Each structure stands twice: as structure tokens, then as C-alpha cells.
Amino acid sequence: MGKRRNSKKEAEKPSAFDPQNVSQEYHELFAQELKDYDYESGIKDGGDSFVAKVPETDCMNIYLRARKGDVPAAVDQYVKAEFFFKQQRCSTILEEDPNEHVYAATCPHWNNGFGKNGEPIYWERTGVIDTKRLLTVLCPKDLIRRHVRQQELALQRMRPGVEKQIIICDLKGLSMWPHNAAMKVFRETIRIDQAYYPERLKVLYMINAPWIFRPIWAMVRPWLDPVTKDKFHILGGGYIDTLLEHIEADQIPEEFGGTLTDKNIPELVPLTPEQEEAAIQRVKDIKNGKRKTEFEGLEYDGDAEPGNESSTPPDLTSPPDAPEAEQTPPAEEQGFMAKLTTWL
Q1: Pairing of strands 109-114, 120-124
Q2: Which one, of 82, 69, 68, lies nearest residue 2 by Cα?
Q3: Sign of the dihedral through C-alpha 60, 64, 66, 72
Q4: Which helix (H) or strand (E) holds 169?
Q5: What is the pLDDT of residues 24-46, one digit of tens each?
Q6: pLDDT tens sequence across 42-82
Q7: Which letter, b or e, does each residue of 232-255 get, where b requires 16 or more Cβ atoms within 10 Å of its Cβ?
Q8: Cβ count near 55 (within 10 Å)
């Protein structure tokens, strides 16, 4: 965290923090803390030439709520987030993605609809994504950059007064343990969200969760802070009533139990042989150091191993919001399930 110069403000104890009604006192303390921020200590690798502007009070509130009223921590998180946005050139990130055709062929997704309080909704058929193939046509930095782009798109779709989004991942079709490199990418996206996009998630539903998702969730769960963890809901096939708690039926596609009939998640558009060959060669060249990705500067350690950083092994027996009983694996598959759990 960036160091601060001593000031009269530091000696004053602010009033009790109310996340629902952040007082002007906290906004003034935030502005003063930002003015006194030590960029040389707080920001590495280029931070000496970077100065974050004083944000609007709505933005201050997001970071103050994320840090539970701890002003120095809120300012430190805000500054580092702004520096990250500058590094990633987020001001232009919504311009055309040069890999758009690859995502259209591998990752069925859709930005459509709004929650009952105006939250933009993101839909994804996560279960049909072949992560092993995905990482032959895209490199990890592509996927992380795409995630940052999606977060920026969600922010753009937020109406005035709306600060959060709803995410729905359909796990139908998930039939294998994810590729190890894909899990590394997923962990990095979680880190990015918690560090640079705090307080932006209303709820995330994972629907049609099969039995194979239990050990996957056991691995992912320790990566989440407690507040974010409570926003994840793992559901089986009987999910529609839960979705309707936050989304009107006319905002849910018919294929997911709603009444929206004229729009659905787009179908995959296969790559041509030439496109596939070019994408595979690009990834090989990046891995071999013959070329760089189009997006440099992402804080991604491709050699970092995902996993629980604490010494306590994850509990594989009772994940919260466990899928329905019908998702229990058949007897002949339970031996394989036992093997999976021993690998974690």
C-alpha cells in the first residue's frame, strides 16, 4: 500500500461507516488521502509518472464499500485499479477485437437483458467450451484481455444509478476436468475482478451444474473472498425460480425457462480451415517467442499454479448450493470422482 504523509486528518477518527449512505466526511477523507498518496511506494513499474484523478463520489463509494470504510485501503485500491486501466488501454478496449471470429467459434456467449433493478446480464454456455482446444487457438493473455473487455462492456451497459451486473453460466455439457492452463486463467480473472472491479457483481448463477462440477467448485471456492463467494450460486436443473428472484421472465430466453422468444445465445460459427491454421500458428509463435500478443502489459504469470494458498485442504463433501440430487454421478462413475478429489 502507498505510504502517506502525516496530517491532521489522520489523527481524526471518522464517524461510523454506512455503506448504504456514505457521508461527505468519507469523501473528503478519500480526496485528502489521494492527494497525499505516495505513488513511488504504492505503484511499481512506471507508477512514478502516473497520477490518479480525484473520482466522482459514486466511484469513491464503490471502493469505500469494498474496503468497508477503510479510507487508506480504498484509496490504494482505487489508484492501483486506475493504473491497471491505463496499462490495459481500457479507454479503447471496446474497439473491435482482432480475435472476435475465434471467440465466435469457441465461446458461445451473449450480452442481453437486464435484471429487475437494471443490472446488465451476461449469458454464457460455459459447459460446451472445449478448454483444451480453446488454448490451441488463443493464448492465456488473449483470454484475460477478453475478460477485461467484457467487464468494461458491462460497465458501459450499466444505466445511471446501476453499479452491478448479473452473470449466468450454463454448465450443461460439462463432462471433463478443465484444462490446467484454463484454470490458471480463470484464477487470474478472479484476481483481476476482486482487485480492479470490486462491488460490480450482483449475483453469478451457474445453472445445470453436473456432478463433475463439485470438485471444480471445491478448487475455485478458496480463491474467492467471502463476500464474492456468497454471490455465487451453484444450481442444478431446477433453477428458473431462483433466476426469477432477480430477473423478469421476459428478460430470460425461452431455452432457459423464460418468455423471451426472439433472442437466444448465438450459435457457434466454425472457423474455416485457413482461420484455424492461422490461429494455431499464432499461438505457437507466441509460445516460442517469435511474436508478441497484441496486448502486452497484463499482470499474468503463466507459470503460477492455481490452488488453495492456505494449508487447509478444500472441503469436497458439501459445496454450498449443491446441485440437485439428480446430478449425483452413477455408481460406475463414483470411482473416477474419488480419483479427482484426491488430486486436489
Answers
A1: antiparallel
A2: 82
A3: positive
A4: strand 165-170
A5: 999 999 999 999 999 888 787 65
A6: 787 655 578 999 999 999 999 999 999 999 999 999 999 99
A7: bbbbbeebeeebeebbeeebbbee
A8: 18
